[in-house]
Request: fold
Amino acid sequence: MDDAQRKAALTQLNIILETELAGVVRYTHYALMVYGYNRIPIVSWLKANASESLAHAHRAGELVTLLGGHPSLKIGPLLETTQHDIGDILRESLEHEKASLAAYYALLDAVQGQSVLLEEYAREMIGLEELHRDEVNKMLRRPGETAPYRE
Reply:
């Protein structure tokens, strides 16, 4: 990997780090804003997502330092709609998962054919993010619907 490719990978890894840290904040906030009969399982799911986002952020940061870079202290975009209905929270979560997925795909594009380590990392994370996106999509479906949720 030449210096330009390394810098491109570092840029994308820092975007991933920032996106995942935004996920920590976002899912933690959502967990605090859930009310109603189904609160306990939904809050547990949101807290688990926050913890997983933190682990993903840490992993991206470790790869930044492995490549000789400096991990970003920024946090990715945070959207506060003040809408805290479960459906609103899930739709915002779906958008966040799509953004995370796009960041990992961009990393894969940047490192393909240059680093097996980073390619495999990107592919693994793409698989996980696709599962997250699909899980949220299923949660947005009305009971009994089998077709994917569409906005």
In short: The longest helix spans residues 3-32.
